[in-house]
Amino acid sequence: MLKKALALAAAGVFLSGAALAGPKKSAKVTDVKVCPMMGVKVTNPSGPTSTVGNYRVHFCCAGCKPEFDKLSAAEKKAKVAEALKKQNAGKKG
Q1: Residues 59, 47: contact at Cβ < 8 Å?
Q2: Is residue 55 part of a domain?
Q3: Residue 16 in domain
Q4: Can you spell out the DSSP letters for 30-87?
Q5: Residues 6+ apart with CB under 8 A from 62
Q6: How far is C-alpha 87 from the chain's CA centre?
């Protein structure tokens, strides 16, 4: 009986410690402001967006998002990588 009580007390301490630790910090979200479908700079900040991993992807028009949503996860990642490449190339020089 004493062993059971000690085990329950230890479990309670463990669980309360985990609860006090709080949620993990989420990873930083990076905005992709080159449309992954058309490859152009997005000029409308309130246009449609989608989230792929830690990226918030902006689209140049309402027609691009539905087409992007039809892609496989691997295709989306490739499109986002290409858009980021163009976006970062524009920052150099």
Answers
A1: yes
A2: yes
A3: no
A4: EEE-B-TTT--B---TTS-EEEETTEEEE-SSTTHHHHHHTS-HHHHHHHHHHHHHHH
A5: 47, 48
A6: 18
Interatomic CA distance for residues 39 and 11, integer angstroms: 54
How far apart CA 77 and CA 16 sit, in angstroms, is: 39
Residue at 4 is within a domain: no
Q: Which domain holds residue 87?
A: 30-91
Q: Is 57 contained in some domain?
A: yes
- Encode the chain (93 residues) as per-residue pLDDT tens digits: 656 654 555 555 444 544 445 555 667 999 999 999 999 999 988 999 999 999 999 999 999 999 999 999 999 999 999 999 999 997 765
Q: Is residue 24 packed enough to be buried (19+ CB in 10 Å), middle (13-18) or exposed (0-12)?
A: exposed
The number of distinct structural domains making up the chain is 1
